[in-house]
Design brief:
By secondary structure, the chain is α/β, with parallel strands linked by helices. It is about 45% helix and about 15% strand. The chain is built from 16 helices and 13 strands. It has a 7-stranded parallel beta sheet, sandwiched between helices. The structure holds uridine-diphosphate-N-acetylglucosamine and uridine-5'-diphosphate. Uridine-diphosphate-N-acetylglucosamine binds near residues 66, 70 and 210.
């Protein structure tokens, strides 16, 4: 029997990190053959991931512009994908998560009547403006997709509430598969700032912040809180790999540029990032992916947002919502620096998001959908 031609479409750093192990799993399987199309909604941050996972795209739309708008990303992706889908004619298209590339990828495939598989399906906040525009992107993709790869049982239940029950499997999150490839006990950092840190002597806090709904006052509050924390604690170093968005860069530089023990660095290659996370004391972030990675590495997370679509680790007690108020972020972080006991309660490894087998389950689900194997995957259970 012919192999199923599976086109993955992705464009940003987090999609690439979470799709990379799946591309390799599709290539290893006797039932599937991968075709990779990137919109390059991100350029440098995408290429960093492609390099580490040694993926060479078959199609590259190269759409990124400085300070691009949501409309331009969607429009350029949709237009470019139209030609690619016509030429490549895949049996199925896989998109990941909730970015503008994800939405455009699903819509373009729908226009060609090609079935869509949604990786990381069923995450919801039920607030259409937070995260913005991601909450609406993922709901729309949920309507288009034929296969839904939900990371957790809760994600499956979210889909069921929207009457999406056909073609759903609970697979775990592929980010856990990715981490198993990158984290190594003897890893040596290449980044100069990371090489200069003493992880035995100092407490290192990993900071990231980039969300569009945090642009403005929230991002400034986050930076002010970090500046105050860095003044208060002489043994704490804050490492902040700054997202390349011009707004984020300008804000980080303005509020944190002169702070001692705050290291504003270039975006890290994903293996550097995962190994930094494995060695740090605490993570403070508004990122989605970090909320999934840190728990499996036993690192507490303060989420710099008002809500999260990833409540599983909050319930397990290793992730806490700190919000976007300067005083509250400062207070919650002080609690974890001052009380070893409070820290230890949060610093436990839990794996609500995956067991490293998500890609295998997704490939099996696809093979089953196309009649290549008799059974779908068994569900992921933490
Ligand atoms: C996008 C996603 C968001 C995801 C985030 C991950 C949408 C609407 N948003 O947001 O869901 O969490 O990626 O990081 O899809 N830039 C560069 N080089 C790069 C990457 C970005 O210069 O390699 C700059 C460009 O000026 C670009 C800007 O960052 O215009 C913003 O990028 P964009 O993809 O529009 O938004 P993100 O905030 O990255
Ligand atoms: N990441 C990285 N280098 C960095 C910052 C983040 O490799 O300098 C990784 C991180 O480990 C996670 C992903 O990028 O896997 C998160 O991406 P981002 O925060 O851009 O987006 P989100 O997860 O919020 O959509």
């Amino acid at each position: 029997m012919e192999k199923v031609k599976v086109m993955t479409i992705f464009g940003t750093r987090p999609e690439a990190i979470k799709m990379a192990p799946l591309v390799h799993a599709l290539a290893r399987s006797e039932y599937t053959e991968p075709v990779v199309c990137v919109t390059a909604q991100h350029r440098e941050m995408l290429d960093q991931v492609l390099d580490i996972f040694q993926i060479r795209p078959d199609y590259d739309l190269d759409i990124m512009e400085q300070s691009q708008t949501l409309a331009t990303i969607t429009e350029k992706s949709l237009h470019g994908l139209d030609g690619v889908l016509k030429e490549a004619a895949p049996d199925i298209v896989l998109v990941h998560g909730d970015t503008s590339t994800t939405f455009a990828g699903a819509l373009a495939a729908f226009y060609h009547k090609i079935p869509v598989g949604h990786v990381e399906a069923g995450l919801r906040t039920y607030d259409k403006y937070s995260p913005f525009p991601e909450e609406v992107n993922r709901r729309l993709v949920g309507q288009i997709a034929s296969l839904h790869f939900a990371p957790t049982e809760r994600n499956r239940q979210n889909l069921a509430r929207e009457q999406i029950t056909d073609g759903v499997s609970v697979c775990g999150n592929t980010v856990v598969d990715a981490i198993q490839l990158t984290v190594k006990p003897d890893f040596e950092f290449q980044d100069e700032a990371l090489k200069g840190l003493d992880f035995e002597r100092d407490r290192v806090v990993l900071v990231t912040a980039h969300r569009r709904e945090n642009y403005g006052e929230a991002m400034e509050n986050i930076c002010r809180a970090i500046a105050r924390l860095s003044e208060k604690y002489a043994d704490v170093h804050f490492v902040y790999p700054v997202h390349l968005s011009p707004y984020v860069r300008d804000t980080a530089k303005k509020f944190l540029g002169g702070c001692e023990r705050v290291h504003l660095i270039h975006p890290l290659a994903v293996d550097e990032m995962h190994n930094l996370m494995a060695r740090c004391y605490l993570v403070m972030t508004d990122s989605g992916g970090l909320q999934e990675e840190a728990p499996s590495l036993g690192k507490p997370v303060l989420v710099l947002r008002r809500e999260t679509e990833r409540p599983e680790a909050v319930e397990a007690g290793t992730v806490r919502l700190a919000g976007v108020d300067e005083e509250e972020i400062f207070r919650q972080a002080c609690g974890l620096f001052d009380s070893r006991e409070a820290y230890e309660v949060m610093a436990r490894a839990v794996n609500p998001y995956g067991d490293g087998q998500a890609c295998r389950r997704i490939v099996q689900h696809i093979a089953h959908y196309f009649g290549r194997v008799s059974q779908g995957p068994e569900p992921f259970r933490p």
